[in-house]
Amino acid sequence: MSPRRPVLQAADTGPAASGKAAVVHLVPKEAIDALAVIEEPLYEVRKQIYPRAVSGWFAGWRVALVLATQLVFYGGAWLQWNGRQAVLFDLAARKFYIFGLVLWPQDFIYLTALLVISALSLFLFTTAAGRLWCGYACPQTVYTEIFLWIERKVEGDRTRRINLDAEPMSARKFRLKTTKHFLWIALSVWTGFTFVGYFTPIHELAEEVAAFSTGPWESFWIIFYGFATYGNAGWMREEVCKHMCPYARFQSAMFDQDTMIITYDRARGEPRGPRFKSADPAALGLGACVNCNLCVQVCPTGIDIRDGLQYECIGCTACIDACNRVMRNFGYAPGLIRYSTENALLHGWDFRRILRRLARPRMLAYAALLVVITAGALVSLSLRQPLKLDVIRDRGSFSREMEDGSIENVYRLQLMNTRESAETFVIRASGLPTLAVAANDTIMVAAATSLMVPLKLRLQPGQAPSGAHAIEIEVQDAGDARIAAREHSVFVIR
User: What is the span of the domain harbouring residue 305?
Assistant: First the structure.
């Protein structure tokens, strides 16, 4: 064994050492090596979370919403309407079909209204009852629930999964892991396929996939969306909610002391501790919490709700169902963990008093804005003209004189028929005496089609002086006078 070697640690060069020789301290190398052991990583290593299955009233609601959202997502792409896909966002043709409604890029205002309504709804529900969206309808939550269900069916519940991951690789472990990931990947690919089916007609897409002839665009998005589903719901899970989703960071700005959140009744539960079912907690000096830790085991983000509200809590209410089951087993009243508010816990309010506090200024403001904007969007949509018109002057020929002395101007009309039936339109011009359409003034536009139409307007000689004159071009449905569009332009006389 080599002798202990001293190493240079530091020299005293402070103000007290000025004017005298520096003092050098020698420390054994083994001591410095020992100090390196206590270094901590900059980022905490992720701890694998094994959520335990739970049943109860709130769990039933979660299952129902998972089934409802996936029925809409997977089934909506296959619905047919008037011989076409009911919901289709045809980016190539710049048409968006939503059942009987056909939207064009000019209808972008309705998408804006939809986003505003969604944001206000999120603010309203969050202010009222916390992260309802995250706990029940968020795609990350929904697909994590589905993937966990597959995992439990293949590998078993929490304890079995922990033991399976701890044991060395074997034929059984390999079979179970392979089966689980195969099902995960199959569901992810189907999810990616369905997602692309809302942008490419899904029947055509299915034929292309079966023939391995999908284009680069479709192939990329099927793989990308499938990979995102597999990675987020199968591997990252709670990390997405904790570190990637911005909602967890700004949710506190929408909370107040009357927001219903998942809370632990500390006054009733503490001091916590185990006991027999027949034991009297008051005689033992204990609260209602039996310290079973089931609330932690069922939490998909691995937090302890008894530590208070935390940004990692997604409001899934699994801890409420687990705690209520334990309370019933011990013969205690449920609700040790429940939906409540800070004011209710502080003042001992009952549920009716909590509901009465819903009508507070912030809630009323959100609700009023939501109602006004939603009503405005629906009224605008119901009054929306199925005919759209744009008028463009022909830049190649401003004005020309015909053989009979009349003046002709040439225009191009962009007609959009947003109805799902072919329509016949009549073109008229006004603003100058004797101004008329030179050629055929009737045009038929196919269903849900945009058509460029050349238009020639003529003015008899001597009707107006030289210069640019304001005119109005009107296009009207031949069978319904209420359907009409007007655009202003100019008629040039040289």
Answer: 256-349
